[in-house]
Amino acid sequence: EVSTDDPETAFRTLANREDLNPEEGSIHHCLYQFTRNEKLTETNKLLCDVCTQRHYGPKKNIQSEKKYVYTNAKKQMLISLAPPILTLHLKRFQQAGFNLRKVNRHIKFPEVIDLAPFCTVKCQNVAEGNTKVLYSLYGVVEHSGTMRSGHYTAYAKVRSMNSRLADLVLRGQSPQALETEPVKGQWFHVSDTHVQAVSASKVLSSQAYLLFYERLL
């Protein structure tokens, strides 16, 4: 898809990314790396139709002669539509020779996360003037064991229904105000048929595999 956005705003975010200074080993650092600005040079240069036509003439001549112009470019993946429910899937495996090995490193994650530094400045469903896009944690999936065998358990927060979130999901209404505190509720650890109440600190110390956040409106 060809974009005609102003190059000066195409790479701008709702909040300044440089103010983040994310801690390595945190979910903020993962998101920062995933959405970083990349330079495409040398063998990664981008095929430029405009440059090609400017250099070789009309497109019909280009195809017959198979001549193309490649140019240096910048690439950045940003969020253009903030979802009602945010699901973050952590890559818990890595290649070790010819085998896959599980990554057991603890990744820090907060109860409330702000996606604004990772959203484009023209994010579609963020009210004008808002510089925060906040989400509250309500579920975590954890895996124990190895790549060959293991056990999945979950942490879930029992909380009151978020009627404004339902409005966003069902009617697509854009939020006009943002809360800053996590949704109140009680956390539970679920392992097969065993369910036990736990503290928020227990949840935040878990080895997360999947994280589920709901948008604060």
TrEMBL record:
Q: Does the keyword Hydrolase apply?
A: yes
Question: Which intervals hold domain USP?
Answer: 1-216
Read off the Pfam families from this record: UCH (PF00443)
GO cellular component terms? cytosol; nucleus
InterPro entries on file: Papain-like_cys_pep_sf, Peptidase_C19, Peptidase_C19_UCH, USP, USP_CS
Q: Which CDD domains match?
A: Peptidase_C19K
Which GO molecular function terms does the record list?
Answer: cysteine-type deubiquitinase activity
Q: Which UniProt keywords apply?
A: Hydrolase
GO term, biological process aspect, one = protein deubiquitination
This one is known as UBP16 hydrolase
Gene responsible for this protein: Usp16_1
